Every structure is written in C-alpha cells, then in structure tokens.
Amino acid sequence: MDLESLLQHLSDELDAFRACLNGDLTVPVEHCGQWTLHDLAEHLGSSNLWAAAAVTDHHGKYQAAPAPRDPGGLVRWFEESSTTLLKALDTDPRASAWTFHPPHTVGFWQRRRALEALIHRWDAENALGITRSLDPILAGEGVAEVFDTMAPRQIARGRAQHPQHALRLHATDTGTSWVYGPGNAVAALSATAEDLVLLLWGRMRSSDAAFRWTGDQEAGLRILAGTLTP
Hints:
Blueprint: H1 3-20, H2 37-56, H3 71-89, H4 106-127, H5 136-156, E1 166-171, E2 177-180, E3 185-191, H6 193-200, E4 212-215, H7 217-224
Parallel strand pairs: 1-3
Antiparallel strand pairs: 1-2, 3-4
Helix pairs in contact: 1-3, 1-4, 2-3, 2-4, 4-5, 5-6
C-alpha cells in the first residue's frame, strides 16, 4: 500500500479507537489477557510514542510514562500520542528508522502502526459490543505482514517453528492469495481478508464457519498451530 493510503488508514483507525474511549474503560478486552479497555488504550498510546521515537530518535528504548487514570485525561493523552505518531510518520517511507525487523525504514512503521491500530480498534469495539468491518485491502496487508514480518520474527525468537509444508490462504473478497511455507501448498484456507487476519492474530478460530478448507486440512492446521504473532 502507498504512503498516503497507509497514513489515512492509520489516522482513521486511531480516531475510531479514540471514539471507543467514550465507553466503559473497565470493560475486559477479549484476546488481550487481563487487560481492560483502559489498559489497551495505554498500550496503543504508549506504543504510538515508542514508534514515533524509533523514527525521530532512531532507537527502540523509549518508555512512555503511565497513562492518566481519569477518563478525560486518558482521552487527551491518547489524542496527543496519535498526533505525535502521525507527525513522525508523515515523511519519506524510504528514510531510515530503528525497527525490530527489516526493512529499517519509516515505511516499516507506516505499515506496522496502521495494522496495529486496525487490530486494536477491532479489540476495543468488540469489547464494547460494536460490530464494524475491517477495510479489506488493509486487512490483506495484515495477512501479508504476518507472513513476511511477524512469523519470521517469532521463529527467530524461538516462539514458533519453521513450517514443514506450505499453506495457501485465499481472500474471497479481494482475490488475493498468500502461501506460507516451503514447496507446493498441501492445503488451502479461504475466507474474507478480515477473517483471515483476525484468525492469524488469534481473534477467530480456524474451525469457525467463516473458513473453508481444501486439501490436507490436518497439515494446514499444524502450520497454523504455531505462535505466528506475538
């Protein structure tokens, strides 16, 4: 995706997440351990500032101060973190930056932060009982990122194993396909791009009715059984 599209998506997703902060901040967030919505907002806002420092200061050591506990203060703090991030990322995607995985460019963060905001916006809305779809093109970018960035990083850190076979994922709404693993695909999994990215990030189960399997499903399930995302 191009710079303009990614930054617009990032801005939109951060705005949508911020709107959730008008809700109950004590509500638990499914798929995020013991976090409440306040905890999730603190995580996303703090990581906004961390990523901005990775671009402007070229290091990954930034530590944000704790987010305010009161709702009004939290909203203002989150809005400021979003503004800081968007300002830092509004530059040439080819410019150098500290990153935790190649490429070591601003473009890495433009993509990463848009996808981080996308997943956590879904988390926040899901916690509040809000159902709203993900942009299919951005969701597809999220599928690609799992395979080209997140899974290799998990393998490098000893959190996942190299797949022994290949699995093909096909987005029924965009027509895009991805292959993860060596050789020819032994199985294929079809669903919308939204459902595929939510599956890869542990927000859905492969047994859900949204997914259609062909080929060696058992082998495909083994490929997905590893911890492909943090």
